[in-house]
Amino acid sequence: MTAVETAPPAGGPAGRAGRRARAAEMSDRGRAERRLGLLLSAPAVIVMLVVTAYPLFNALYLSLFSYRITAPDDRRFVWFGNYVTALTDGLFWQDVFTTFVVTAITVGVELVIGFALAMVMHRALFARRTLRTAILLPYGIVTVISGFAWLYAFDLQSGFVNAWLGLGDYDWFGGRWSSLFVIILSEIWKTTPFVSLLLLAGLAQVSNDLDEAATVDGATAWQRLWRVTIPNMKAAIMVAVLFRTLDAWRIFDNVFVMTSGQNQTETLSFLTYRQTITRTAIGLGDAVGVLLFLSVLLIAVVFIKGFRVDLSQVRGDR
Amino acid sequence: MVERTRTRTRYGGGRRAGAGTRTARTARGAVAAVLLAAGLSACGGDGGTPTLSWYINPDSGGQARLAESCTKAAGGRYRITTSVLPNDATQQREQLIRRLAAKDSGLDIMSLDPVFVAEAANAGFLRPFKESEAGHFTEGVFRPAVQNSTWEGKLYAAPFWANTQILWYRKSAAQKAGVDPTAPDFTWDKMIDAAARSGVTVGVQGNKYEGYMVWINALVASAGGRIISDAERGDDARIEIDSPAGKQAAAVVRKLARSKAASPSLSNDDEEKARSLLNGARGGFMVNWGYIWRAENGDAKDGVIDKSIPGDLGWAPYPRVTPDQPSRPPFGGIELGIGAYGKYKDTFAVEAVKCITSTENMKKYMLDSGNPAARAAVYDDPEVRKEFPMAGLIRDSIGAAAPRPITPYYTDVSGATQSRWHPPAAVDPASTPRRSATFIRQVLRDQALL
Fold first, then answer.
1. Of the residues A249, A312, A314, B27, which has the maximum number of CB atoms within 10 A of its CB?
2. What is the pTM of this model?
3. Could you report the per-residue pLDDT of B39-85, keeping only the tens digit for each?
4. pLDDT band per the 50, 70, 90 thresholds, residue A177
5. Is the Cβ–Cβ distance between B54 and B108 less than 8 Å?
6. Domain shared by B273 and B384, yes or no
7. Phi and psi, residue B112, nearest 5°
8. Which pLDDT belongs to residue A3?
9. Domain co-membership, B141 together with B239
10. What is the CA radius of gyration of chain B?
11. Is the dihedral of CA B142, B143, B149, B154 positive or negative?
12. Are residues B226 and B292 in the same domain?
């Protein structure tokens, strides 16, 4: 951390010359430590290459074929045909839209509720631990299990929600928007604690002095929130939004459990699953998977570059 | 697996012993190897007995009991262990197909849904039965079960139990509606009208899953049509769903979905939801598989449903689409396939499948689990007749049943059909069969996502 901050700018001729000079100056002990460092990190790098890079490149390669695992002899190289099929298919764009709706609503609502919960946890004077545990509890539950819990609660035959709300025979999972409503509700319940945890970390980094100074200057609580607290935790907010957006964009479990993608509730991950696992159309499925990966990459780049998100905030480096 | 572990251990011990020169080290190595091998063989149970893994679909324990009895019958030459597959037929296939594609030698015997036999056989994942063996597995077996187990003239699976849907109804509801569901001209139209008139429901499987495909296929077949033909031509198969029969089937789906007789959760209903609907206050009629009789009696005994319900339960042939044409009920069940990569595929696996599918064991399984046997002779057994008063109807229905398309691309055909026919209320005879025909073709040729 300190080394990074004090290091001269790298990349230019001066940087290279500097590095060479430093290497020449490096003591035996320094070189040995560096070697040890490389050796210690090598297994992790190799594991990462095996579990991440290999499947990714394999998927890229296979996406250029018309290929099913049940008909290995019929494998044909089709260039980018699978991508054209996917990108010109109405179903793909319908699923993009569904994924976007789920992401936008869940992230928006979670940010507001998560912030409120973070404030409660931050300001709580007593029973802090109990409060934090209670708020974090949903996040500890496996998504598939929480998905089933919400499914059974809203189910027409086994559920209690209709009885509570006096809705009679209303079938929540019979229509697109009512199904998405339950899916979104379940997502919000499940992952709001994650957002509140990140925001709590951000809140803790806002200096009390600033708040007190604003109070002395006569700022109201509302003004202090908008002019002092939120601007000072911008990085934490952006990191929370980035992480949750990436998470929500890949939503699968709740859709799988509650609707199996019917009534136009299918998301991009589910579309990939259906092509690859159900149809065993590996080529087409990998093309959709690569498109999903690219969209995730795009979101990450837009957030990190466009909104200047500082990922070191979540590590507490600053 | 136990065998492999033990072999590896022995080799390991040998290398260690050979590396050392001193006698003491050799002795220590040998003792360690012996102890390790003994310990591992103790973990393996009965040591060197070959073990066959049978992947079964979930049932009430009947298949596991058959595995035990066939193990006993083998007299120590082999034993059969069971592993349970997921609940849903589609997910059962997903698990098996992926493992078979990876040439998994751990799949000795598999309980396969009939519609997936063609795909697995075409891919070379199943060991075909020799002609000398085939006769044993097909003798006296229902024709649709043999058809579904055969691919390109070879028998790839042994019919184990066969299944069909019949019409289940509450006698009181039928009486109130003034209809006789057992009458030869009882049609879907008559049933839907009678149910709507008397405020009861008609339960079907309308969820977007395989059960919905079962219903659509039965309606199309009952109207005298087929969804596809020339299935052996793979993605060039003839698609025939856009036909007068397809339109008649669509008309039935639409009529029910838009009538008062529809379940309020029709677009999500599976077999169990339909059963729960029949047991409810508005229970009237339901098409469902043969397991219903055992399930209803069990639930009544356990107090889950009213004790009077099984006595009020009637059964009749699958309803007709047109009064002058007999219905073609759905066909289901389980066939036993032998994995192409198993160690004992040519020896013990064949023997074990012979044991499991013997007429005696089919009868035993039917009495034990309530799933109907694949051999017609079982239905004449007095014990079976006593336990299943509708045995004769089930036997005739299986004989008349129409298999779903027998094609290696079945999942695509089924998925594409479900996709265009769901939700049931949106089905339109004027457009749905045509749209589904186009879509099936596109999906078969990888020109559309599913």
1. A249
2. 0.84
3. 444 444 455 899 999 999 999 899 999 999 999 999 999 999 999 99
4. very high
5. yes
6. no
7. -110, 140
8. 39
9. no
10. 25
11. positive
12. yes
C-alpha distances in Å from residue B307, one per residue of B168, B246, B284? 17, 41, 17
Residue linked to tokens 């005298």 = B224
Q: What share of chain B is helix, strand, coil (3-state, %, to 5)?
A: 50, 15, 35
Is the pLDDT at A312 greater than 70? The verdict is no
Same domain, B266 and B171: yes
**Same domain as B117, residue B91:** yes
CB contact under 8 A, A274 and B98: no
The pLDDT score that the predictor gives to residue A109 is 97
Q: State residue A241's pLDDT score.
A: 93
Residue of chain B minimizing CA distance to A176: B423
Q: Which residue, B428, B65, B445, is CA-closest to B236?
A: B445
Let me know if residue B139 belongs to a domain.
yes
Per-residue CA distances from B147 to A96, B134, B403 (Å)? 42, 13, 8
Task: Identify all chain A residues contacting B90, using CB atoms and an 8 Å cutoff.
Answer: 278
Cα B363 from Cα B374, distance rounded (Å): 9
Residue type, B400: A
Highest CATH level, class, for A71-315:
mainly alpha
Those of residues 155-184 in A touching chain B at CB distance below 8 A are 156-157, 169, 171, 173-174
B120 to chain A, closest Cα gap in Å: 7
- AA letter at A103: T
Instruction: Mark whether B392 and B432 lie in a shared domain.
Output: no
Q: What range defines the domain where residue B314 resides?
A: 164-330+406-444
- Do B26 and B116 share a domain, yes or no? yes
Whether residue A309 is predicted with pLDDT greater than 80 in this model: the reply is no
| Alpha carbons B108 and B253: distance in angstroms, whole number | 41
CATH number at residue B252: 3.40.190.10
d(CA A85, CA B446): 8
* Coil vs helix vs strand at B162: strand
Domain assignment present for residue B450? The answer is no
B108 contacts B349 by C-beta, under 8 angstroms:
yes
Residue B187 lies in a domain: yes
Measured between alpha carbons, how far is B106 from B349 in angstroms, rounded to an integer? 12
CA B84, B90, B93, B98 torsion: positive or negative?
Answer: negative
Cα(A275)–Cα(A289) distance, rounded to whole angstroms? 9
In tens, the pLDDT along A86-118 reads 999 999 999 999 999 999 999 999 999 999 999
Q: Where are the domains of chain A?
A: 71-315
Our CA-based measurement puts residue B6 at a distance from the nearest CA of chain A, in whole angstroms, of 30
Domain match, B291 and B374 both: no
Report, as ranges of residue numbers, the positions in chain B whose pLDDT lies below 70. 1-47
Chain B residues within an 8 Å CB radius of A76: none
A120, amino acid identity: V
Looking at the structure of chain B, the number of domains it has is: 2
